[in-house]
Structures are given as structure tokens and as C-alpha cells.
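Appendix B. Chain record.
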Amino acid sequence: MRRISGAAKRNAVQWLSQGISPRRLALTLALGFAVGCIPVVGIPTVLCAALAVALRLNLPAIQAANYAAMPLQLALIVPFVRIGGWIVSAEPARLLAPRALPHFPAFSLAAHMGGLAGQALLAWLLAAVPAVLLMTIALTKMLRRIPAVRAVEAGD
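C-alpha cells predicted for this chain:
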């Protein structure tokens, strides 16, 4: 049983690293995790795929990090909306009561939700840049301790 587990770990590391250095793999995972926390549901998967193609990053690794961040994405929506509202000095966001939604004009509802999303995206952006830098540094140090990943760096 241990041999299967060890082989599975090696295969997973090789699959996720696919010949990229620990630093590049760390950047891939950090970007995937940070983008996975974008406070607008549905955008991270497409954005991660676009980043992977544009920056020649490992698509499975960036998507794995993106999906790992999904619970955090949902937990951070309200804090990002509040922080964004504080940054732009907007009046406190009022959550609409579920019973009031059918009686709210569609255009006003869309404008209200768009404003909240914009505030949340601003707060996310200000948090994501330093988070990606810190995660990249920490993950690079951690990944260099994995022999299979370190071997790729030595082969470069």
C-alpha cells in the first residue's frame, strides 16, 4: 500500500510540475489561489485558463489551486464588499431582503449588484498582489524541498 501511495505522490508531482522550475510552479499555484478568491463567482476558472495560456503556466496546476480556493472565495465575498466600500467611501452596502427582491426594479438591482461587485473586486485586487508575492516566495521554498521538483530545477 505504501508503494502505491509513494508512486501516486510522484506521479502527482510530475503531473503538476511538468518540467517547470519550483519558482514557476510556485507562481502558478499562487496565481491560481489568488484568482480563485476573486469575489465574483464564475470568473476564476476562465481567468485562470487565460493566465495559464498567456503566461505559459501549467494549466492543471493553476486550476487545482483555483478550485482549492473556492471555499475561501465564497467566505471572502462579504468582507471584500465591505472593505471595497470603505476604500471608495461608499455608503454601507445594504443587503436586500429576499422578500423584497421580486419588487425591486431589475435595472436598479443590477446596478446595485454591479456596484457591490466593483467594490469587492477593488478590495480583492489590493489584497491579491501582495498575497501572490508572499505565496510565491513561501511556495518556492517549500517546493524546493520536494526531490522530484528540485530535480527539474537542477536539470534546467
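Further analysis of this model is presented in Appendix C.
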